[in-house]
Amino acid sequence: MSEKVTEEQIKQRIEQLATLDDAQWESLCKGCGVCCLLKHTRRQGIYYASVACNHLNLDTRKCDTYETRLKHRMTCNKVNVPVVLRSGLLPNSCGYVEYIYGPADKQIKPDFKKIIHEHAMVDTKTEPSDASVEPRRAKTLPGPWDFLIPESLQWCTRAVELRDKYDRFCNDVITRWAKKQNNR
């Protein structure tokens, strides 16, 4: 069990996170690949799906197009200060979240042997071959909601706390960070 981090320490670490240079920022990433899994929001919260972006190499858990990923995929979220502090999307064991809260009690390590790429979703649902099924019935295309990882609802509790409990404080930090980015 990790040592409890005080609220003051959390705020200091949030401030520090916003001052990191690119090399320091990249060094926090553990390369777990979890952020590249598709997500689906339900009333209960955010679920991860056992479906990865097509650009994620499932063996290395690295993006094949990392440097140009935002050009290839409009829905790719560049993990930056606002994503860490506002999205509630990153798992408790993400290096950026651990920078603020300290080590997670449990490391999130999905079985990547069971993860499929987005393009493979279409192949997972086929029309029934039963002759009693009406042939004009439309084929339903699967989505990430068909591949949810049930326990993933608990993966992001610390990121959700950042988003909700420290909302006003994080907004101030993000505003200062954004001004600094615009002046680069």
Description of the molecule:
With 184 residues, this protein is an alpha+beta fold. The chain has one domain (7-122, 140-178). The protein is built from 8 helices and 5 strands, in the order H-H-E-E-E-E-H-H-H-E-H-H-H. The chain has helices at residues 7-17, 22-28, 69-72, 81-86, 95-101, 118-124, 157-165, 167-182, and strands at 37-42, 45-52, 56-57, 62-63, 116-117. The strands form 2 sheets. The protein has a 3-stranded mixed sheet with strand order 1-2-5. Strand 1 (37-42) and strand 2 (45-52) form a beta hairpin. The longest helix has 16 residues, at 167-182. It is globular, with a radius of gyration of 19 Å. The relative contact order is 0.20.
